[in-house]
């Protein structure tokens, strides 16, 4: 096997897999979300509305051969949004083929790869681009084209990635809420002359011991996080994303001891404009069966620090978080997660809560709210200060 | 479900030697020996796969159904490894759960959440909580290990057409939701026929009954149906098993984080 001509190798491999394999079954499933949002404060901009409706369609097809050595998955998504033209968008979240042998597997195509362990921020997680129009939480990701060889060894799991192209971050338009209050230009600039065709590479080692899960990672390529520069486009003020090259080293540790989970993520990032370290660390302590009920209560606390201090592009440069996670352990799978964040440099306070409950085998309802109290313009969160919202989602699974 | 330590095998041998010399076994020894015999007869299955339908019924008789698939790998010197894949309810479809059970310490457990593509390490110290909102707790779903309990033989009595050995077992784990369990094990094939669970206040909480035993791979007995009745809240949960496969060649490679991520 050679990676020098990955495209040719892959095409050949895919063809042989498709021809030689009798696919056991094709499984079709998915969901449709109906979403309604209400904004409690007067908008910063006249183009913004106080309510919004949105529909998300997310089907999924999975093929697997009989001896489970080959798996193909296709998961596209389409959202239609009432007010934000940028949020009306489609994406191929996943379209990949996994070939499995006893101690290695090769994963090829558009995939999501998650590297983090903490709750409020994922510093080490840099493979996928954030789909920020979907949710400002940063948890929603765009599919990333990749070839990923994963080796299982006594020493742990070794992952090697080649990432042949780059995808730009999505941003809400000026009509969207929450938004930056300026349109983000579609004409992004790049440090590399290869622009969005730069070949990125990454490697990750992970291993679990009885009470400890560890990982180390290295990434070299286009920084998923753009530097936003104010500019003029056709006489209009816009923000132009600039994507630099970067090298990042990351590590995660997770200690499990009885009812305690201790979590740590740290990175060192080197790009042409800046070199810095950052940490996100904290714990989750779970109280089981509180007050003789079936309800479990998780107490979460985390701290985020960034060496760049107040000039950090990250919103979590010196921030403390507290959270409560209620798991009702009932038939309806009821869950509530509430969190509060405090920026110790800028005195910004943010609050978020999420809850969900299954109605039956096909339907589920969920709710989400976010509030930001910000008075310091220097905090990147300041632009969201008028965008407090409450959102209800009705999901139908098929 | 096997002999977990060489030490245990030695104990077993020495016990059987002892019993030929001294006919009088204490109730504690007899109870333990019955469970060791049950465990021994269910040793050597190597790997196992099956589908499970979990039917939850509330006191009003309303039903909801979960569809689950399970794979297990027998371990010679430790608790078993298992991979559980959820097909229904549909909102949790694709969620998978990897567990390495241990005799002398907490199990190692990871959960795969497909929507986020995330593998999450989870704490296994929650023994008494309900599994998927059912009447089975996490501890009921875990693999049985001899040394997790101390025993007491109570009596022999008829159970249906069979004769059962009635054994009391006391969990050693302080986090167990039970003070004791009473098992009815038939004396012909050493199969669990019935299990009573007593809560922390020592009142009868649940009864688990086993129906439709079938023998697989010429040795291993599995019940088609397990019914858990909760006497205190009137709810019940039925497990209906299908498609049992033994010794199909699963190995450690089918029970790691990579396998967890692609479990479908």
TrEMBL record, chain A:
Q: Provide the leader sequence positions.
A: 1-24
- Signal found in the keyword field: yes
Q: What keywords appear on the UniProt entry? A: Signal
Q: Does the keyword Signal apply?
A: yes
Protein's name according to its UniProt entry: Porin domain-containing protein
What is the organism of origin for this protein? Answer: Oceanospirillum multiglobuliferum
UniProtKB/TrEMBL annotation, chain B:
Residues forming the Uncharacterized protein TP-0789 domain are 79-262
Which protein is depicted? Outer membrane lipoprotein-sorting protein
The protein's superkingdom reads Bacteria
Listed Pfam families: LolA_like
Species of origin = Oceanospirillum multiglobuliferum
The record, for InterPro entries, names: TP_0789-like
Q: Which UniProt keywords apply?
A: Lipoprotein, Signal
Q: Where is the signal peptide?
A: 1-24
């Amino acid at each position: 096997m050679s990676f020098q001509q990955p495209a040719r190798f892959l095409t050949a491999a895919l063809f042989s897999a498709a021809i030689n394999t009798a696919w056991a079954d094709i499984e079709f499933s998915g969901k449709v979300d109906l979403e309604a949002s209400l904004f409690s404060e007067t908008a910063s901009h006249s183009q913004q509305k106080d309510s919004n409706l949105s529909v998300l369609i997310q089907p999924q097809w999975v093929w697997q051969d009989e001896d489970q050595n080959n798996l193909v998955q296709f998961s596209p998504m389409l959202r239609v949004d009432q007010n934000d033209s940028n949020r009306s968008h489609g994406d191929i979240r996943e379209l990949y083929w996994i070939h499995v042998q006893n101690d290695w597997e090769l994963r090829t195509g558009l995939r999501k790869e998650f590297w983090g362990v903490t709750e409020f921020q994922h510093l080490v997680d840099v493979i996928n681009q954030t789909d920020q129009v979907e949710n400002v939480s940063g948890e929603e990701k765009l599919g990333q084209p990749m070839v990923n060889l994963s080796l299982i060894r006594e020493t742990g799991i070794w992952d090697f990635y080649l990432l042949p192209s780059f995808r730009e971050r999505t941003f809400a338009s000026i009509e969207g809420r929450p938004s930056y209050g300026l349109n983000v230009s579609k004409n992004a600039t790049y440090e590399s002359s290869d622009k969005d065709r730069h070949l990125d590479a990454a490697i990750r080692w992970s291993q679990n011991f009885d009470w400890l899960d560890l990982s180390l990672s290295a990434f070299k390529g286009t920084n998923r996080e753009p530097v936003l520069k104010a500019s003029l486009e056709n006489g209009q003020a816009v923000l132009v994303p600039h994507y630099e090259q970067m090298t990042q080293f990351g590590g995660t540790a997770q200690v499990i001891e009885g009812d305690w989970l201790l979590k740590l993520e740290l990175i060192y990032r080197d790009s042409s404009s800046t070199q810095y370290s950052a940490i996100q660390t904290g714990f989750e302590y779970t109280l089981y069966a509180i007050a003789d009920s079936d309800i479990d209560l998780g107490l979460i606390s985390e701290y985020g620090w960034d060496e760049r201090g107040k000039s950090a592009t990250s919103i979590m440069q010196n921030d403390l978080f507290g959270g409560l996670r209620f798991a009702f352990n009932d038939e309806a799978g009821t869950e509530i997660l509430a969190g509060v964040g405090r920026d110790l440099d800028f005195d910004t306070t943010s609050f978020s809560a999420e809850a969900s409950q299954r109605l039956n085998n096909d339907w589920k309802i969920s709710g989400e709210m976010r509030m930001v109290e910000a008075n310091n313009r220097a905090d990147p969160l300041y632009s969201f200060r008028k965008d407090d919202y409450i959102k209800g989602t009705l999901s139908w699974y098929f | 479900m096997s002999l977990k330590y060489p030490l245990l095998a030695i104990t077993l041998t020495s016990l059987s030697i002892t019993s030929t010399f001294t006919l009088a076994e204490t109730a504690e020894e007899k109870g333990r020996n019955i469970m060791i015999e049950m465990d021994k007869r269910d040793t050597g299955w190597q790997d196992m796969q099956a589908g499970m339908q979990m039917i939850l019924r509330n006191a009003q008789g309303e039903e909801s159904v979960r569809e689950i698939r399970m794979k297990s790998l027998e371990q010679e010197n430790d608790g078993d490894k298992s991979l559980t894949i959820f097909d229904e309810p549909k909102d949790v479809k694709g969620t998978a759960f990897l567990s390495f059970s241990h005799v002398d310490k907490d199990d190692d457990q990871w959960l795969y959440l497909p929507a986020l593509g995330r593998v999450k390490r989870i704490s296994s110290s929650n023994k008494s909580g309900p599994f998927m909102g059912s009447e089975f707790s996490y501890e009921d779903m875990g693999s049985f290990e001899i040394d997790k309990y101390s025993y007491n033989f109570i009596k022999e009595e008829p159970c249906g057409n069979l004769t059962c050995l009635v054994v009391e077992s006391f969990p050693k784990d302080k986090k167990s939701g039970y003070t004791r369990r009473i098992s009815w094990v038939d004396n012909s094939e050493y199969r669990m026929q019935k299990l009573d669970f007593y809560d922390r206040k020592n009142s009868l909480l649940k009864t688990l009954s086993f129906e439709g035993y079938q023998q697989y791979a010429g040795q291993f007995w599995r019940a088609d149906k397990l019914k858990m009745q909760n006497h205190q809240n009137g709810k019940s949960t039925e497990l209906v098993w299908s498609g049992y496969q033994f010794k199909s060649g699963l190995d450690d490679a089918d029970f790691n984080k990579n396998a967890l991520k692609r479990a479908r």
